[in-house]
């Protein structure tokens, strides 16, 4: 889906601007932010909580197809 972050998607950076990674809140949540281009040419601000599917296991990142919480 163009204009949205989507787990399992690819190449968001081809149409993304202002990409920024931040650790947010008291729980130190890793969030990816960007302005993404939609299929009609407009743009929208989007973000995705990386902790939903990515975790650190023994110093290595592991992706899960299932929500972690």
Q: Helix count, per DSSP?
A: 0
CATH topology: HIV-inactivating Protein, Cyanovirin-n
Question: Residue ranges: pLDDT <50 for 5 or more in a row?
Answer: none
Strand content: over 45%
Order of helices and strands: EEEEE
The tally of beta strands, per DSSP, is: 5
Major sheet: order of its strands? Answer: 1-2-3
Would you mind describing this structure in some detail?
The chain has 69 residues and is an all-beta fold. It has one domain (12-63): Roll (HIV-inactivating Protein, Cyanovirin-n), CATH 2.30.60.10. 0% of the residues lie in helices and 48% in strands. The protein contains no helices and 5 strands. It has strands at 16-24, 29-37, 43-49, 54-57, 60-63.
Summarize the structure in short.
By secondary structure, the chain is mainly β.
Show the helix and strand layout.
Layout: E1 16-24, E2 29-37, E3 43-49, E4 54-57, E5 60-63
Antiparallel strand pairs: 1-2, 2-3, 4-5
Question: Features of this protein?
Answer:
69 residues; HIV-inactivating Protein, Cyanovirin-n; mainly beta; 48% strand; two-stranded antiparallel sheet; globular; three-stranded antiparallel β-sheet
């Amino acid at each position: 889906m163009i204009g949205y972050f989507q787990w399992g998607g690819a190449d968001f950076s081809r149409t993304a601007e202002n990409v920024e990674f931040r650790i947010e809140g008291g729980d130190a949540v890793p969030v990816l932010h960007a302005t993404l281009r939609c299929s009609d040419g407009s743009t929208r601000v989007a973000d995705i909580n990386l902790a939903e599917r990515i975790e650190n296991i023994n110093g290595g990142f592991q992706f899960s197809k299932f929500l972690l919480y």
